[in-house]
Amino acid sequence: MNKNDMFTAEDVYDFVIIGSGFGGSVSAYRLVEKGYSVLVLERGRRYNAEDFPKTNWNIFNYLWMPGLRCFGFQGLVFFKDMWLLNGSGVGGGSLVYASTHIKPRKEFFQGPEWCDLADWETELAPFYEIANRMLGTAENPRFWPADHVLHDIAGEIGTGDTFEPTPVGIFFGEPGETVPDPFFGGEGPDRAGCIHCGGCMVGCRHNAKNTLDKNYLYLAEKFGAQVWPEQNVLDIRPLYGPQPGAARYEIAFEKITDWFFKRKGTVRARNVVISGGVIGTVDLLLKCRDETRSLPLLSHRLGNRVRTNSEALMGVTARDRDQDFSEGVAISSSVWVDHETSVEPVRYPPGSSFMRNLMLPLVSFEGGTLRRFSQVVKSAVRNPRDFLDVRVLPNWSERNTILLVMQTAENRMHLRRGRSIMTLFRKGLISEQDRENPILCVVEAGREIVERFASKVNGVPWVGINDMLDTPNSAHILGGCAIGDNETTGVIDINHQVFNYPGMYVADASAIPANLGVNPSLTITAMTERAMSRIPAKDEMGPVRPLQRPAGLDMIQQTEERRSLLLKAAPFAILLALLPFIFGAFKLLRKKK
Ligand SMILES: Cc1cc2nc3c(=O)[nH]c(=O)nc-3n(C[C@H](O)[C@H](O)[C@H](O)COP(=O)(O)OP(=O)(O)OC[C@H]3O[C@@H](n4cnc5c(N)ncnc54)[C@H](O)[C@@H]3O)c2cc1C
Ligand code: SF4
């Protein structure tokens, strides 16, 4: 039987969505609402409130590192040029995020990468409103010790008027009291009031944080979308010409949580939305373009101009326990410390000190890695108590404040497929700094605030171990699938449709075209709302046109086949070419004897 005959028209979904973070969940709900059949493939696990770990030392339930069989929701990704935090699971990054929703400043909408394509500020304005309503944004009602310290610092440096409580996606009803759905006129799930326990980034066990599985994705599933967790998408293959059910793409996936032999599957769809977050989306598309060659016509811009929000994660550990810094929602206030830099105080709840493993007391690093390492050792010997305070002594969360520093400054790097020590020399995603505008590890404006904060709370300022390696870090990776007016300037068009692949969309942080200087989820949500608003309802959509085999594709594939044949034959050809010399050398040796 021909493989195509195994699929009937009923097996074909209108949309398959890859990933269930902000881009994926918004897309799922809006497409189901428009009458489409929707399947969401998500590589992470599904979590209920009680499934989240009590502390983040429960690494198998907290970390997402499938190679080590850690199938939690907090991803740690290490590249040569950046260290990243991201999220995995049904609900994507919302499971681990601090739920801060801030609209970026004007400059973002006028960024050079996309300003010629639309008046983005005006165009996106109504979608920010929808995003805030759907995500249940409310102002954090209570300040805590770290907020007061940051407010004082802002006053001293003359930016006190920019200090604000954070708008957050949290339900502030009566603390701990469960009530019927307060957001969607009774269509949503029951919710409970926030108890300000500081646990948002270890997963809210109290049903108060508005994760996507409680709003967009909840409604999408309620109205018919299917979500298949633990399914890692490996390939997207276009189906050219007429197909049963007007299918246009076949999506191949495997069950990521299986041991050794992972079960594999395929589904077919008339359209695909790729929402794997920057790392998931760029990696999958680069693989499809350069390795499986299923999507060879993707723009050469893919993976270019990836940004880290020009971010630095640093902080202060107080030497004594006069004040408790662990209480409150995870991010309770924000302030601009200069025209391009914002700072937010961030906290973990008591017992959740796993992240201190990535931290070191702040040293003025100079020279290469070895010299920097020796500086760390010297500082630890000179000030052992400071070293122990940051890395070992108890009650870290109660004494600690992370300072999240974000900038609108332009700097970037690129993502490619290749081999490096970070991929253990297997094929994987690797980073490459931009030559003109590299991302710097040290954000001076942030360091100044950290030092001021430390002196006010009698604390030890710290940075990430990545500083010792002169590598920036971020929890807010952006870009890699630029919006452009054609395939030479971008990967997707202004409606988020991929150039050269009708019915294929990208909707997630990889479409964000500049550093925001604030947390990105609200913007990802607003941009996806706008993109989905441009897809007509199913009953207004005409018949789906089959994918036409692009002119020149046969030639590209033939050239590819020839190239791969040549590569396979190369070792034999070299051996044949060397044979006369080997024989010659052998004869010479025998003559000499
Ligand atoms: C600790 C932490 C705190 C944060 N706090 C905030 C905050 O307060 N405010 C804010 O705005 N932002 C915050 N962020 C950032 C925010 O979480 C991300 O910017 C956001 O989640 C990105 O959304 P996305 O739609 O691009 O993709 P994601 O939310 O990252 O979702 C992508 C999903 O796709 C899945 N996926 C990837 N590849 C595949 C594949 N091949 N097959 C199947 N599934 C796949 C992933 O498992 C993931 O679930 C925080 C991030 C971290 C790590
Ligand atoms: S502070 Fe605690 S209760 Fe409130 S949203 Fe965060 S984790 Fe949930």
Contiguous uncertain segments of 5+ residues: 1-5
Helical proportion, percent range: 25-40%
Which ligands, by name, code or SMILES, are bound?
A: flavin-adenine dinucleotide, iron/sulfur cluster
Strand residues, percent: 15-25%
Report the sheet with the most strands, covering strand number, pairing sense and barrel closure. Answer: 7 strands, mixed
Could you tell me the number of beta strands? 27
Kindly state the mean pLDDT as a whole number? 95
User: Radius of gyration in whole Å, from Cα?
Assistant: 26 Å
Distance between the termini: 66 Å
Question: Counting H and I runs of at least 4 residues, what is the number of helices?
Answer: 14
Task: Find the structural class using helix and strand composition.
Answer: alpha+beta
- Based on CA inertia axes, which overall geometry fits? globular
List keywords for this structure.
binds iron/sulfur cluster; seven-stranded mixed beta sheet; 593 residues; seven-stranded antiparallel beta sheet; alpha+beta; single chain; binds flavin-adenine dinucleotide
Structural summary, described in words:
With 593 residues, this protein is an alpha+beta fold. The protein has a domain at 551-593. The protein contains 14 helices and 27 strands. The strands form 7 sheets. Strands 1, 2, 12, 13, 14, 15 and 27 form a 7-stranded mixed β-sheet that branches. The longest helix is centred in the C-terminal third of the chain and has 40 residues, at 553-592. The model is unreliable at 1-5 (pLDDT under 50).
